[in-house]
Write a structure and sequence with these properties.
Elements: H1 2-8, H2 16-27, H3 33-40, H4 44-56, E1 60-63, E2 73-76, H5 78-101, H6 104-129
Antiparallel strand pairs: 1-2
Helix pairs in contact: 1-5, 2-4, 2-5, 3-4
Length: 141
């Protein structure tokens, strides 16, 4: 999906990482930089680099944190909101187009699998939000 969406509409030459940060911020308005880094599972320095580029591009703003960078919060600008909306629309268009090309039987299979896929996505999100596994390996299922 990411590759096809970037080929269909590069959304102002933003990287996928930048688009993911914008999307995460759209879902979590006013998030602090450290929160975004944790949610995206990236290093704080990577978040800072991405956010800095997005601020220079006029897609996000930073408020607060004058004396303590940890208290700063980030928000989308109108242009940032437009970039997220455009990215979502491109992805939706691609998905609709691909689904329309599937044979009817395959579309039916995909439609019947949607509840299970929603559950699977929720479980994957829960794993991403869980504390890291200890030295003995992953947590038991």
């Amino acid at each position: 999906m990411r590759r096809a969406a970037r080929a269909a509409d590069p959304v102002g030459n933003l990287s996928v990482a930048q688009l993911e940060l914008l999307s995460c911020l759209a879902e979590n308005p006013g998030a602090r930089p450290g929160q975004l880094a944790r949610m995206l599972r990236i290093a704080p320095s990577s978040e800072a680099t991405l956010a800095s580029g997005l601020r220079r591009a006029g897609l996000i703003t930073r408020s607060g944190g004058e004396n303590d960078r940890r208290t700063a919060s980030l928000s989308l600008t109108m242009d940032g909101e437009a970039a997220v909306t455009r990215w979502q629309q491109v992805n939706e268009r691609l998905l609709r187009s691909a689904l329309a090309e599937l044979p009817p039987a395959s579309r039916d299979v995909v439609a019947s699998a949607l509840p299970a896929l929603r559950d699977l996505a929720g479980l994957i999100d829960a794993l991403a939000d869980a504390p890291p596994a200890g030295p003995s390996g992953p947590r038991p299922a």
